[in-house]
Amino acid sequence: MTSQEIRQKFLDYFKSKDHLIVPSAPIVLKDDPTLMFSNSGMTQFKDFFLGYKTPTAPRIADTQKCLRVSGKHNDLDDVGRDTYHHTMFEMLGNWSFGDYFKKDAIAFAWELLTEVYGIPKENLYVTIFEGDASENLERDQDAYDFWKSHISEDRIINGNKKDNFWEMGESGPCGPCSEIHIDIRSEEEKAKVSGLELVNNDHPQVVEVWNLVFMEFNRKADKSLEKLPQQHVDTGMGFERLCMALQGKSSNYDTDVFTPLIAKVEELSGKKYTGILEDEKDIAIRVVVDHIRAVSFAIADGQLPSNGGAGYVIRRILRRAISYSYRFLDMKEPFLFELVAVLQNQMGKFFPELEKQGKLVTEVIKSEEESFLRTIETGLIRVEKLIQQTISENSKVLPSEEVFELYDTYGFPDDLTRIIAEEKGLTIDEDGFNDEMKKQKLRSKADSAQKVYDWVTLEEREEKFVGYDQIEAETYITRYRKVENKDGEFYQVVLSNSPFYPEGGGQIGDKGILENAVERFEVLETKKENGLIISLINGLPKDAGAVFYAKVNASERKNSQANHSVTHLLHEALRDVLGTHVEQKGSYVGPDYLRFDFSHFNKMTEEELALVEEKVNAKIKESIALQEFRNIPIKEAIEKGAMALFGEKYGDTVRMIQFGSSKELCGGTHVKNTSEIGHFKLTSESSAAAGIRRIEAISGDQSDKYFKGLENQITELSQLLKSKDVVKSVEKLIEENASLKSEIESFKKEKAKGEIGDWKNAYEHKGDKQLLVKKTSLDAGSVKDIVFQLKKEIPTSVTIILSDADGKPMITVGVSDDLAASYQAGTIVKDLAKEIQGGGGGNPGFATAGGKNLDGLESAYQKALEI
């Protein structure tokens, strides 16, 4: 049974059990402040479990892309070193929201595994929650009783809280779970040791394949448990492990989930995969084929490698793969990008984003490979210098600070430094390096540390956003919670009527004021979390239940929404000018400026930029009225021509924003008419990543300020030039400047001619050779011309000129051709450059060096006389 057939059978089975089959959510999360990535199948359904949204159906099934590389769930360091850990993996899941519970969930799982997939019953074991007295949680007797009707009681194992009580995080929905484990060992091994003894003991062939979670409780911030109003089922089955079991393999990497990728790596590297756990070559191949999946899906879902946040995690995964292939597969040129086509062929049918974004994914990975390979080459030079320095100090240990700097600042893998050091008979200061790592983590943790208390609910009221229609509203605080961070103590509040737009879709959240006749609080930011619009205020009202008046900062909102509307017009203009391959890949919308990232593989020309700016301003001048479609079915919006962005998760109903022919799905705030934007001014165009260009621009008040600033500059120039025709006056200055430069060059040449005669007579005879050491204030160009002339005209000569032109020390050395074999100009200049705290180089006949210490020219002069 192929992996594609296994996946399809799962979906078909649950469709036959009245489950709605939904597509995988993006692997990268953009609207959840608590997570960077989907790290489990239930992530996209969190709002359903928490009661913030109504489920689209009471029964759902899917296959979800997951990534576990940060935070509590971090499998990165295990990947490649065993047969079953992965960064990116698929989680097959079925869900019940207040519909069926333990009995049916257990029956479905057993039927699918034993009858549809045909797994022998004697190879399966199950676990149930044994209870926990410290939390007054009883043994899950219901699950035990339901399992008894399917499997013998001696195969039902009690599991502790760690293994059999599933929690979403520090707080949130949770409950007992029942794991299904499969024993895929040979009959001979099974006869020696019972599978019962190996369950949950990290045996690579007795593994958990499916976890049935029974959501019954909500974990509060104070760690107490409360019953959920409804009972839910959340299951997750590891697709890769299931394929291993059904295909009769002992390793996930031996299944057809990975074998096509491994075959391609073998072809490109010339290395054969043997599957040996300890073999560094095989570890490298496993790392490569695992990591290429994680990186490809993340980029396809809109997360580009970068130096911060989720982008840094993706860059780190990719660089880990490059590092392993560089060291153990001898791959010194980019090659990972060639695996993307194989991945598309394997998974494109179920995950169309790979097909749609294939070119972008390929180009980004290739560019990152090229960049990091350059980093490795540069790092090798730095490591060599560090090794030589360590040896010169008669030490055998590379200092931890320098090794950490190589890793942290320059991105050079610490394990590569370790290997190179060992080859030279050295080690690194492991304890010191680990201390540096701990310090970095503590700094990072301190910067982001935040203690969040439980919500205090004041009064059950409808909580809604009214900010599309008004920027001031009478409101009540429905709930609040205290937040403590490095900046102090604050309070998050949820309002019954909130005019404050929560950060999202690239647009920053609103700020403003929350006040009544007695108190006034500053709203510092507004975000959305688990469906709630949360505003952060700088204190707690004495009477939190009183009526308040919420006021958005009007000028900031006005400019932000002007910039947001501009991004829609800009997107359309870019597609008109560059082509329909252009797609938005990220944005920032604030009151001061906008940033817009889009897919395009070439730097835009001045003509293209001018045309885009012209098209956007033409739309603004047309005074196009906003057409807003709220809560429109997504299918209808797409039929109307609305653009849906890859990597975004849309609900069944959406909001569509239309300005004439520009139609996009968007939740942001917008102007009522394009004329309110004022004027659009493009300020820069640059590369954001491989295949991604970035435009920064201004509009509204900032555009007015920009042109006012230009006007003031022209006025000042007119006054300085004493002319209203600024252009003509500047042209005249340029002509005069060119003429003066020409005269200066003539003077320099005349001066140099005068110097040459004197310098020829100043050579000292040193045996059968001649030496000239001379100080001068001539510029570098003049010195170079003279030295070249002298080394030609004066045989068997070494010429050393020390210059202090423009207050900067410089040393120039010339050696006549007949001495170049024994007196190297580059060697001489490097030795003398030490005196001026500088460096330089050249060839045997001519070399130069600059430095920092002007006073050192005197000691360099004395040293030169000894040559």
Automatic annotation (TrEMBL):
Its main location: cytoplasm. Keywords: Aminoacyl-tRNA synthetase, ATP-binding, Cytoplasm, Ligase, Metal-binding, Nucleotide-binding, Protein biosynthesis, RNA-binding, tRNA-binding, Zinc. Binds 1 zinc ion per subunit. GO terms for molecular function: alanine-tRNA ligase activity. Residues 1-709 form the Alanyl-transfer RNA synthetases family profile domain. It catalyses: tRNA(Ala) + L-alanine + ATP = L-alanyl-tRNA(Ala) + AMP + diphosphate. Zn(2+) binds at H564, H568, C666, H670. Its EC number is 6.1.1.7. It comes from the Bacteria. InterPro entries: aa-tRNA-synth_II/BPL/LPL (IPR045864), Ala-tRNA-lgiase_IIc (IPR002318), Ala-tRNA-ligase_IIc_anticod-bd (IPR018162), Ala-tRNA-synth_IIc_core (IPR018165), Ala-tRNA-synth_IIc_N (IPR018164), Ala-tRNA_ligase (IPR050058), Ala_tRNA_ligase_euk/bac (IPR023033), DHHA1_dom (IPR003156). Its cofactor is Zn(2+). It is found in: Cytoplasm. It is an enzyme of class 6 (ligase). Catalyzes the attachment of alanine to tRNA(Ala) in a two-step reaction: alanine is first activated by ATP to form Ala-AMP and then transferred to the acceptor end of tRNA(Ala). Also edits incorrectly charged Ser-tRNA(Ala) and Gly-tRNA(Ala) via its editing domain. Belongs to the class-II aminoacyl-tRNA synthetase family. Consists of three domains; the N-terminal catalytic domain, the editing domain and the C-terminal C-Ala domain. The editing domain removes incorrectly charged amino acids, while the C-Ala domain, along with tRNA(Ala), serves as a bridge to cooperatively bring together the editing and aminoacylation centers thus stimulating deacylation of misacylated tRNAs. This is Alanine--tRNA ligase. It comes from Chryseobacterium gilvum. The gene is alaS.
